[in-house]
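ARCHIVE CARD
SHELF: 3
SLOT: left
DATA:
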Amino acid sequence: MRPAAETDGKRAGPGWRGLPAAMKGLPAVMKSLPAAVALAWLAALAAALIHWPLLTMAANRLVPGVPVTGGAALGQVLPAILALSALAAGLLAVSPGRRAGATALALALAAAGLFAWGLGHGAALRMAGQPPAARAGLGAGAWLAAALLGAALGLAVRRCRRPGLGLVVVGLGLVGLGAAGRAGTFDALSLAVEYAARREAVHTALVEHLVLAGGALGLAVPAVILLSLWRRGQDAVGIVIGGVQVVPAVALLGGLVALTGGLLRAVPSLRDLGLSALGPVPAMVGVAAYLLLPLWRGLAAALSAPDPASLDAARAMGLTETQILARLRLPLGGQLLVGALRVATVQAIGLATLGALVGAGGLGRIVFDGMAQFAPDLILLGAVPVVALSLVAERTLSALEDRMRAGLPA
């Protein structure tokens, strides 16, 4: 009889003997993974550009459009876009880190060719001779291609590892879109038609949206500071702030409108101060209530960032609590505060859209007008700026957070 250990080892031997060979093959698999991902990305992009609808031609803004795919929408620009995308995919697969700048340039040119020289020009050609009510909208393929190009461009910019390069790319993209729009490149697209018809309303709504989001942050930040000073009631504060998160935003705004109306009936003199049951005040208060939790947790984490030994050493040196806060807690926990502010800012920009439900205006008014009229492009006219504002705020504060984490000057 053989020992049990020998029998077990023999039974398990082939698997254990095969493990080193598998480990040796792991680097090859890891090296081929970027190539497989790049190939899958290129295949998805090609499918979106060739087989999915890039444009939809409709008799008016309310009826479903007829899809236009591939070369019929982009014309001779399609091969150039595919060639640039294939070049970018090859660079990502072969040298993902060394040639990130060339990859980003190829992707930027592909995106410019898709929207400026492709879709804009293609929509203009197809809209020639059409009645004024006709619309040329962006199809699902255009949005999918834009998402794929944007994701790859973001990856290439990140691999460049140049501080602030992402903001530069976003800024140049916005400038390029603005210049193309002023040149009339997108005039035939229904989104541009909706914007031209509501230019002043969109600008006013954008300012109102920024005021709502900024006002909510202006209310939430000092409120969190005051709540953090109440040391004995931190458990109760956490329960209340956490409980607000489970209340639907629409229900909270409705409750604030009813509460404000009751307060005005009890104290009519408040109307002389400009307080109203509808408008920006209940919207700001409602949005600020949702911002308390990320700010409160971020402040608590920042204040507890120093280890107890550092705090004991600071007190032994004779530093007061205010000096410890200024010289120790805030410098060590500053990036945590910026991270909390980043989350709260993005959340405020998104939630401010609901302010239109209580008469506060903002970009939500355009979104809800589009929903009421069953006009998808009008909905996008209000939603796209909200997404753009959120991305810019997130990217800006993320860059500041990274700089503070790395110990670089902001």
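SLOT: right
DATA:
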Amino acid sequence: MKEIRKIIDVYEQIDWAKEKVALASVVNVEESSYRRIGARMLVRSSGLWIGGISGGCLEGDALRRAQQAIFRGEPSKVVYDTLEDDANQIGVGLGCNGRIEVLFTPIDPEEATNEIEALKTITAAEAPSIMLKIIDAPESSNLLGQHLLLTNQQAPAEFGGIDQSRLAVMIAEVAERRKPKVYAVDVGPFDVKLLVEFIRPETRMIIVGDNYDVGAMLGIGKELGWEAFLVGRAKKLTKEMFQLASRVVEYEEADTLPVNDYTAVLLMSHDYNWDKAVLPIFARKKPGYIGMLGPKKRYYKMRDDLREIDLGGIPFLYSPTGLEIGAESPNEIALSIAAEIVAVMRNKAGGSLRLKEGTIHEREFV
């Protein structure tokens, strides 16, 4: 969501009398790729861009392709295939070793439903959204680049020649997987490829605590583009903490903070009684993650003391919080916690990639 917000910010500052723009989007990936489906790059006719579709090996060519799309006024798709040892192929020698499909779409600011205008509607979303996009179709069909954003995950009556019943099955599968997927679909006289993109809402972080280590956690949250709320005594917080938090409340007001499936609650008060008081409040709200600082014995004591809830039966409670990386300083501890939150939100174990068999990412094409 951070990248989407940056693209929207630049888009809203464009002087349309002097410039035009195109959106480059990663719409399919096979094997290895630095960026995955959903990565976006906004290119201006002046040659400036924001966002990215790779680790740097494709952006130069993507700039030229996007400018061509602006000039022609129509979408196009380019396949960057670095699976073969072809010295003339962009990306070879830079470690890509994958097949990446990128859709280049000129953006018309007068079109109320253009993709960036659609993305504006989900920056404050509390739940995931689904983007339907035709990423391959015969040129004569004029379907390439057609898109539809769904904020309620309900299948439309029809899209790109695909009927509601088939769309509903694909949307349900992607919503359950929480990952994008590309489908090859027969629509009668020809086939199309449909990208069903799963767009997560912005991660929300609620930090309970007012000691100096809170600053490190707020800092890494800002870098990741997370929305941060802070629970603590205002008189103990620094000016920087207030600036980094979207909202600050006292301990007694913790129950007023909004929680959804993509909320991470961190109990960092270093005060056993406060943690014991707020843990049941947030446990009832069922966030995606609750992490509690302190040794395992602290968790066991709280489990025994909190008779009204079964801490052992809460799957989203992580205590001690964070991945085991040997963290010692507040910044290292914040890194450890943030990494675990990302792993949990992505349904990953959080282990070393060196020990993983096969590819880093699952194949996303059917």
